[in-house]
Amino acid sequence: MSLRVTFVATRKNLDPAERELYEMNLVLDVLKLDRAFADLGLLTVAACTPPDVEVSFVDEYVTPIDFDVETDLVALSAKTSCVTRAYQVAEQFRARGVPVVLGGIHASLRPEEALAHVDCVVTGEAEALWPRVIEDLRAGRLKERYDAHDFPPMAEVPPPRWGAAPAARYLFHQLQTTRGCPFSCRFCSVPDVSGNAFRFKPVERVLGELAAMPPGGGLAGKRRPLYIVDDNFISRRTYTKELLRAMAPLWQAGRIAPWSAETTVNVAQDDELLDLLRDAGCATLILGLESIEEDTLRAMDKGVNLCMTYPDALARIHARGMSVVGNFIVGFDTDDVGVFRRIRDFVQQTGMLFPFFSILTPMPGTGLFDEVKAAGRLFHEDWHLYDTRHVVMNPARMTPAELLDGYIWLYDQLYATDRLLDRLERNWQWRSRARRGMVERLFVAGALNMMTRDGGPALRGLSRRGGRLLLDRRLNADPGQLLFTVDATHYAERLIADRSPQYAAHARRFEDPQDARMQWQSERARRGSAKRAASG
């Protein structure tokens, strides 16, 4: 009998009912899909499995895990916020006598912790090590640790084993063109796991993977949208430009869908690069803005974002008809409660369509984690709460409740119907690509009623007025963008349940920076008095 290996993609949250922003639950429900993204890492490692091994893939979002499955090895991968669930799954398989191997970023940075829950840990990039793991398993000598010290050239990394996954159950196609990062942002651990130099997949390989993506699966029978998962898509401009020139004919021939990619703000310095992105079908650029405060960017070693002003960068991108997702982090040591109002005003003034927010979370393996732990500012190491939507450390210039409420307030303010529709209409006026067909628009307009019938007033208002905007033939409307804005509004409404009892008072402080400074000075004085009393 051949060896059997089961790859298991686990849920992110311990509570399956908890709303996840990046999983786009509302859109998935309407389109009758199960998950936004397949587990690219697991499927890539699965592709490195010797051909005589029987491989199966289980995604907990798609089908329940069968803990009684006949298998010789279970393979898991997890980032920090997902590792608690991965440990639970591992322990259930081990209780049945099935060995479990765990990889991913958390196990790579905390291998000794992980070994308390699994039989084997693979650290670093697993592709080159995986055949050795299988060989040792076959010989009955599976080791506890396999450590990858090298970073394989991207030409040697095989395409993901998409055939093992239920591809029709996912919202997005995915593509990886680069790995690694030379930057040293203090809140990020990517260089520790993927190396501090960029590595590039040959352009011909990328084109081959694009050609292999099946048509259909998207809105009204269109192609499923494409997400390029690189941490920085423009890591080397000469490579990116070569790739974009090769992708442009595919886009113009309708052989690839509109796509999005993550990058740094300096993309906007290069007019030729922006033109190539537009001509190759890029619909949305995801910018790691992190903060609008210069002193914060310097403190976090994010100097790459100081190359030009944010409003100028966004204006250049918008002028090409591309939309912007802006990723912000709140809770830096330089942030006071006035930062929430400043971010809100900046987003609305620039017309950024999708602002997404994270609470500063010190991930294991980063300099930030070591610093706050040494200072006694870390509340706990309950990893499932390290999901960037919970406060896990003591902020420097506001209370934990103010930080959480500020995060919620930003979503409430910026996904309110009037502000959101204003940004949406401005983005559709900027768009320069071919108009979407009326069939696709009508499909989404009808879907909006299903999506929002159980929602709050913001969601229902967005559905009603957004649907009218969608059918306005004068606008170059993007039905998919409207779906995603409705989904983000749904997330914002669900956050209301997490507000502190002081939310109304905090919201007033966010609007009045002078009052906020006075309140913080009083709070700091109170803390100082309490600390002196305790030590005396």
Strands across the major sheet, in which order? 2-1-3-4-5-6
Secondary structure: number of strands: 14
Q: Enumerate the spans where pLDDT stays under 50 for 5 or more consecutive residues.
A: none
**Spatial extent as radius of gyration:** 24 Å
Q: Strand portion, in percent?
A: 5-15%
Number of domain modules: 3
| Major sheet size, sense and barrel closure | 6 strands, parallel
End-to-end Cα distance, whole Å, is 72 Å
Overall mean confidence score, pLDDT: 88
How many DSSP helices?
A: 21
Inertia-based shape: globular
* Class per helix and strand makeup: alpha/beta
Give the proportion of residues in helices. 40-55%
Task: For the structure shown, list the relevant keywords.
single chain; 536 residues; Rossmann fold; Transcription Regulator spoIIAA; 3 domains; six-stranded parallel β-sheet; 21 helices
Secondary structure elements and pairings:
Elements lengths: L3 E6 L15 H7 L8 H7 L7 E6 L13 E5 L5 H13 L4 E4 L1 H5 L1 H5 L4 E4 L6 H10 L5 E3 L25 E3 L2 E2 L10 H5 L4 E2 L2 H10 L13 E3 L8 H16 L6 E5 L7 H9 L2 E9 L3 H6 L10 H10 L3 E8 L7 H13 L3 E6 L7 H8 L25 H15 L2 H14 L7 H15 L4 H14 L8 H17 L7 H9 L1 H23 L1
Helix pairs in contact: 9-10, 13-15, 15-20, 16-18, 17-18, 17-19, 18-19
